[in-house]
Each structure stands twice: as structure tokens, then as C-alpha cells.
Design brief:
The chain is an alpha/beta fold and about 900 residues long. Helices cover about 45% and strands about 15% of the residues.
Amino acid sequence: MRLVKYIAIAIINGFGVVIGIIWVAVPTTVAQPSLNYQLALSGRQSEGETPQSLSELYKLRDRLKVQLDNLAKNPDSAPFPAELWKSAIHRQQSQTLTQQLQNVQSQIQIEERAKYNWDDAAKLATKAVVIGRTSNPSSATWEESQRLWQLAINTLRLIPHDSFLADRAIDKTIEYQGNLSVATYEMQVARSVEKIRAEEEEIRERARKEQEKKEFARREIERKEQEKKERARKELERQEFQRQELVRKELERQELARKELERQEFEKQELARKELERQEFQRQELARKELERQELARKELERQELERQELAKKELERQELERQELERQELERQELERQELARQELERQELERNQQATPQPTPESTATPTPAPVTPAASPSNFLFVGDTNRDGQINQQDEAGKEQWSLSKGALISFNDRNNDRGKIPTWKQTKVMVPRRAAMLSQVNLTLSENFKTSQLFITADSIASPHISVFQKTGGGWKPVDISGAKPLVFSTNIVLGVEAKQFADRNWNGTVNLKATAQNNGQEIASTTIQMGVSPWMIAPNTAPVTEVQVSDRGSVNSEFISQLKQAVEPTGAKVKILQGDRTWMQDTQKNGYVQLPEKSEIRQFNVALKSNSDQEKNPPVKSTQDRDLKVVKIGNPRSLDPVSQWSDGYGNLQVTPPIPGHPMGRVYYGNSGNASFNPEVLDFIQAQRIQGPPVDIDTSWLLTRQVDEIINFIPTQTPGQYVMAIASPEAGVKLLEELEGRGYGDVTINRGLSTQTTVSATLKNRALIQHNLYLQNQKLNPIIEKLKREFLLGDDQIIQVPVMFGYSGYAWWPNMVNSVPVNGKLLVSNPRGPMIEGVDYTQERLRQLLLPAGVSVSFLDDRYYQELKGNVQSATNTVRKPEDQPFWQSLPNN
């Protein structure tokens, strides 16, 4: 029977699709695995002991196990030798049953594997049937059906020949072979149909192209005929125009000849008039210069006389001061000699009394009288307590004068040294534990020099109660720096040359003016015998203006979206000598995260300057401090507490909203200005901090209520010129932006694209037709920008020649409608500007060229950067970066007006 089935399979394979179709029809349930396996096999089971199904194998296995268990319960040992044959039979039965059980288990494994293959083939067949029933199946569909039928056949062939399912597997294989043939035939038919359709489509396409070719030839003939007629018409018009042009030129020539005669006559009269005016002007100028010369000579004589009198007065004052100083020193010397003689006399008298004592002294006679305490005289020579009062980097006798009165111009400076570095939740000045300094260079030195007269005295350092929480004092000992108790409870370690170090835990602010009165006291037996006081102050925090040299530019790596911007930034910055620091993280707007400032302190050979940054009050974990490449000298301080601002004013506290001018009259270190949005000004605590420094204030508020970001760096920027110490102020001008567009349309460039590649891309004419947008920008100029310009001229003493109005346009919500060229960064003679993506006229960006022309008198080199990513987020180059700038070389105390 099996041989016949194999022959049938061979016939199907050999005669192909047609015989398969004739022999086997695809039944609707051919692949449904719903036939119960056990029921299928139960029909084959015979009445004998030989199992015919898997369930019978399970029953036989269980029965054999029971028999083996029963044999195990009956012992196989015989009590008498005559019954040994029973034990042998018992063992033989056990062995037979064990062998049968093993055979059954092996057969069970074969049948289970056969059943798994049978079920798997049925699943594949089901999928093939579902695919074959798809409406309008393609050749690919039939190819997939063919593949599934082949897999099902291959799976059936894995069923072992000695399995109960072997015969059914052969039957099912023949059935699946027929279905495979059907799928193969349908696939071939589908492919033929698709090929015919493709050929028909190709024929139709060729016919269409031929028709288009004929139509194009017809239209081309019509076009050439039309062009011929048009050329003839234009030729007639040209000839007529030439005739009229000749007539017009003749009339113009005659008119020019008449005007030339009139001009020559006018010039002759004008030259005569100017000659008379020149002669009169020369006469008046000579008279004026003579009067000025006489006046200058008189003033010079008066000045020389005043200088002579002033020098004479100063000389007399100096001589008087020297005389008084000599008299004071002489009196002090005499007083010291008198005290020394008195001390020696007391010691001599005491020695004589001791020598006159009896050989058998009584307890009463051995008591030595206690001499009265001797109070050494406190003078600059024997009790010198000074810091660097004159700020020359050295501490000596010259610092004694004026040490008790501190000002920004004179007096010992204290360095801010918040070693907490903004990491703790409690401010350093509120912490009771005093930490030993790791860097002595950050301490401001104070020396206490004593004479030997104080070697038995206790020495104390105290500070006024207001300043005590805000400073720490340390004494330099052989074992390093030790904290000093400034409450007066514990004395210093005695030395004739005591070196103290003072540090401030915070800057001056609204609660503390930054000054401290330190008092040195000497005591004998609890009685004060000498004291002196010095006043010190914290060196103020200052902001370097945009005109200062740059050492580092910081930018956040946002991935591919700003990689081109960073590349262009490096190309522009690195040739200037500054570094570009690329930071990882989520700080998109680097300008808002912190304001980099600096502090100055005197040193012997130069001025010590180190960076101190004001940190944003936002979440520190999301916004950690940005360290510069000069990390060793960087300190970070946070001023005030975070504010809950409404979404409209959420950017008001960003440090892009806090800027400083270059040196201006009355403010040699610059003056701070900030944006005021009305409802939410810049953080008042930071403004109070600026005011408490007393050097770059009072801050000037600028109306930024109409800006989306509410930040002043969107509309104002100070740019250094090629001339050292000079600058120009760039200010946003919506009116200049509108005029630029009108100028372009007037020159015939109304169809040129502006805001190229941006979400606001449009044309010049389309923008000018948007009257609401134009009127909005003209309103901003008249009602917002013009008053701001007048205020800046008044507050910063600016002239019109120092102001550059940069063309900008703003959207209705207050964002820059094209990239804002005011929001730029000056870097060592180069200005980094947003690419405005303006209209391209003859291969040149017209808006870029306008800025270059505006800055040409200042000699500023401009580099335009592709900040498209930031523009779409409503920001530009300055907002996206931060800078570390080199402060002024001249110390602030030498730049102040009273110096």
C-alpha cells in the first residue's frame, strides 16, 4: 500500500500541475487540525495485546508499572532450597516487564514527536489555505501559499515510518502535494496575467508619449509663429521709440545748454560772494584767535600762580605734619623711658627688700608683695595691627594711616571665599562650624606686631556683632592655619609677629554692607592694657562688559540640531585666542544659567583677579554650575531664592536680562541695566545685591514688557570698536527693518525670499502687504524703542554717533521675526552674529550687508553663524552662549572718581 502511495506522489511530481489539478481538488477543510488525534487512532486499535494508539501506549505503560510494583512487593527469596526455581521465575518476570516498559516508553517518544510534526504541518496548511482564499491574490500571494504548502509537506516527512501516523502522513502528503501543485499553477497564471498587464501598460504609455510629442510639436510651431509676429511688432515699436528718443535728446541738449549758461553765471556770482565771505571770516578768525591766545595766556598765568600757592600750602602742611609726628614720637620715647626707669626702680626696691629679710623667716615674712601691674603704652611701634590699607600688596608701617576708615578707594580688602561652592542647602555664613582654609592665597592677611612688653599678656581678636557671622579669621601657626575665636572668649597663640588671615563668607548685600571692624586687645590679669582697631571690607563683585577681552565661550551640545552652529562657532572663536567649551546637558540657553563676574585684590607685583559667577536660582540638579577652564579661581554664589513667575514672565530672572555697559562718565567700571516687564522685573534680591556693591549701580531699568522673553539683551548690545576704550551701542530698530523692506521693493526685489529656510519664510512684497505686522513694528518703534533710546542717552551720556539702529522686525508676541542681529557676542575684535537669512541680491545677503555697512566706521569684523535651531526656539547667538571675560587691568580702586 505504501509503495502505491509513493508512486502516486511521483506521478504528481512528474506530470506537474495539470494532473495535480485533475486528481486533487482543494477541500475546504483540508488543513483543519480539528480531527481528534486519539479518535483517529482508536479506529485502528486491534483486540490483541499490541497497542494501536498513543493512548493505548500510555495505558500499557501504566499497566507495566503496576505489575512491576506488585512484583517488588513480593520477595523473591525462597525459604527452602527446593523452591529456588520460584525466585528465578520471579526475577525473569521482573526483567521481562522492565524491558517491555522501556520499549513502550521509547515508542511513546516516537509517537509524541510524530504528533507534534502532524500538528505543525496542519498549522502551516491552515495558513496556506487562508492565503489562498485572499480576494484577487497576486503572484506574490500564491508564492507565499506555495512556500507554506512545501513547508507542511517537509514537516510531514519528518514523521517516523514506524509511527502510528506514518500511513496518515503519506495520505496527507499526497493531499498537500496536490495543493502545492494548485498553488504553483495559480502562481504561474498570476505571473502571466501581471506580465500581460505590464506589457499593455507599456503600450499605453508609449502611445501617450507619442501623442504628447505630436502635441508639443504643434504647440512649438504655434509658439514660433507667435514669436515671429511679436518680433515684428517690437521692431516697429523700437523704430518708433528711436525716433521719439532722438527728438527728446535734442530737446534735452538744448535745455542743458541753457541751464549750463545759467549755471556758469550763477557760479561766477557765487564765487565772488564766497570770496568776500572767506575774507571776512579770516579777519574774524584772526581776531578770535588773538583773543583766545590772550585769554589762554591769562589763564596759564593764573594756573601757575594757583599751583605755586597750592604747592607752598602743601609744603607747609607737610612740614607741619612732620614736626607734629616728630614731637609725638619724642613724647612716646620719653614716656617709654620713664616707664622703663619706673619698672627698674621697682625691681631694685624689691631686690633690696628681699636681701634685708631675716635668716629665720616666718611665714609672714616670706610673703612677697605683689607689684602693681605695669601697663605698656600702646603705640604703632609696639602694638601694630594693620592690613593692606594702601592696597600696594605689602603690609608695613605705612598701612597704619587711615586703617580705621574703609571705603571703596582705600582700606584693607577681604576676599570672598565661599568654600561651600553653592553645594550646601545652608549658606556658609549661617554655619557655625569654621572650616580650615585649603588655600591660604584666598585669605586676606592682617599682621599683629608686638614688643616684648606684651609677652605675659593675653591677646584677643574681636569683630563687631553685625559682621561676625559673615567672616572667618585664622591664625598662622607652626601647625598650619587655626580658626580664631572672634567673640573674645579664647586668646591667640602668642607671638611677637602674629599673622592672621581673614575671609568673607558672602558679599555685601541688603542685610550687610560688607565691612567689619576688627579689634586687637591685650590684657593682663583681665585688665585691658592696649587695643587698636582696623576696618576692612569685602572686595565688590563686578561684571565685565561685552567690550572686555574673552578667554572662553561656553555652549551646550544639543546633538545634531546645533552641530553646525558649534562648528561655525569654533571656526570663528578659536583664531581670536579664546577657547570654546562644549558642555553636555540640558542647558539650551547658556546666557541665562549664570552671570560670570570677577573680584580684584591687590598683590605685590600685580592685581589678583579671579572669577565669581552668580548662579541661577533654578533647580541645581538640572542646572549645575558651569565651570570654566580657569576652574581653580572660579567661585559660584547664589543670590536670593527662586521665584514663582507666571508663564509670560518666566524668563525675567534669566541672566540674559542683566547686562552692564562699558566704562561711561561717572561709572568707570560700567553701569548695570536690566529689563523691567512691569508685572515682573528682574529678581529684586539680585538688584539689591548689585546696589550693595556700590560700584556698578544704581541699575537702570529698561522697558521690556513688550518682548516675548522680557530680556534686555534682545534689544541692546555694546560693541567695542577698533579704537581702544571706544564703543558703539547697537539697538533693535523695527523702523529700520520696515525701511529695509520698502527699499528692496522700490528697487524691484519684491518677489525675493526673506527668512530663508525658517518657519516664517515669505517674500518682501507679502510682508509689506501684511499691514497689521508693519503697523505693529512702527508702533513698537514710536512707543517703545524711541523712549528707550532717549533714556539710554540720558542715563549713559551717549551721543547720537555712538548709537547704531539695527534692522529688526518683531512678531505680535514680541519675538524676533527674523534672526536678531542685536543678540550677538563680541569676541576679541570679532562680532558673532545670527545669520538673518535675508534676501539674496546678486549672490549677497542684503540684510547681512546692511549690518556690515552700519559697523564699517567702527571697524568691526562680523562672523554670521547659522543659529536656525535657536531662532525657531525664539533665541539667538548671545542667548545660546556664555562668555568668560578678562577684567580690566587697572584696579577698581584706582578708577573711581574720587581717585
